[in-house]
Amino acid sequence: MKYAARMFSLVICVVMVATMFSFAPGVFAAESGEEPAEYQISVIPSAGGTVSVDPETVTEETAAKGVKVIVTPDKGYGVSSIKINGEAPDTTVSGPVSSGSSFVWTIYPQEDTNVQAVFHKSNGYVFVMLDAGHYGNVNRSPVLKSYYESQMTWKLQNYLKQELEEYTNVVVDTTRSSQSKDMGVYERGTSSKGYDLFLSLHSNATSSKSTDYPLIITQKGNTKDALAVMLGQIIESVMDTRQDYQIWQRLNKDNKTEYYGVLRGSKSVGTKGMILEHSFHTNLTAAKWLSSNSNLKKMAEAEAAAIAVYYGLSKEGSSTIPLKKPSLRIYNTDYRTLTLKWGKSVGAQGYVIYRSRTKNGTYKRVKTVKSGSTLKFINRKLTCGTTYYYKIRAYRKFGGTTRYSNDSAVKAMKVRPAKPSVGIRSGKRKITVKWKKVTGATGYVVYRAKKKNGKYKKIRTLKRSARSYTNTGIKKGKRYYYKVRAYRKVKGKRIYSEYSRTINRKAK
């Protein structure tokens, strides 16, 4: 009986203990001081965009719900991928899901986790780094006490940044965020790493108060760079300087490294760099011009347009800034040759010339000129007596594509012998007209009039070997006017040159 009573008491105790722990989970954990594990989610910053996570802290229980990773690329960049703890994501990651301009991944961390996005530059974007030449109040004008180069370049930098950012496919940054902060010249150049263009903005100084030419200083070997030429032309034109722009390069004594730190720095990181000297603040007219905010805005707009043409940038809702169509002129050179000349199209890398035998016929390409500074083409081996029609357009290559200007107006020219170069001398009751040989000429015709603008009559036709004609039996003291033209026979028909210049003499 006593044994049975003891067993009953033991069972009751076990049940009570079990009941106590079944209604109080975590008692042992509470007694031992342990808490559920927490995982920290941290972000490693990367150039080209921003990354945020939500939430930043999870526990073992809440990690199963996932952590949002929001990746937003900067303008001009795209998202390549994300890295979880330095490695490519595995099955613990889902996404990305596009959310406007951002992308969202969901991760399921099982430990403390760091997240990093990998960004890349987007195709078709141009990256420009602007550098205001000086900081604070530096380089005061000796002829205009209110002018400081540092203040002008800071304003111009900001105006130029605003103008460039009107274009959709450009990213613009500045070397410094504040005008009051200084920065080493070499470091200013190296800050353009990964950019397409580095521009350092300045005004120049010299002992002469009359000097006012704009100056573009390039890296070694770039003095014929098309953009440098364009910017030099722009500054000269907008400021209306008395002297023409110049393009220089300046090297150290080793004749290899750049003298200027900003150009040395930009070149070291593979970025095309230039210093733009906006005339001279030692010239009163230039200093006054550069002191005007409206003038600086005008300059920024013009420089931005030149950069846009060079790189093929476009504005929202508009096509790429077009190249200006060239203006074409044609000259007769000789009986088989025409010379074409045209006006420069700013930003052009070259020109394409087309030709037809009828104005509204099919035009075929006859020449691609692969230099934007070459403005002449000699078309040889043509047929004498035939009229040829020409048009030309400028082109520029960018981003794997070639962009063209509109065609020029059609110009026509008949191929004929060159007009003779003539001379004259007088003798006793005679006048001798002389000329130089005209290539391909079959003969020459001499014409005479009694007045410069009178009616000219043919007085003699001569063979190809003739180089002069003496007009005898004329009145003493009477003035006579002459001109000559060459001709070439083609299939029995005479093809005449233009008339020579008019020459005159009095007979003795």
Automatic annotation (TrEMBL):
Keywords: Hydrolase, Signal. Residues 322-415, 416-508 form the Fibronectin type-III domain. One of its GO terms (molecular function) is N-acetylmuramoyl-L-alanine amidase activity. GO terms for cellular component: outer membrane-bounded periplasmic space. InterPro entries: FN3_dom, Fn3_SaeA_2nd, FN3_sf, Ig-like_fold, MurNAc-LAA_cat, N-acetylmuramoyl_amidase_3. The keyword Signal applies. This is N-acetylmuramoyl-L-alanine amidase. One of its GO terms (biological process) is peptidoglycan catabolic process. Residues 1-29 form the signal peptide. It comes from the Bacteria. The keyword Lyase does not apply.
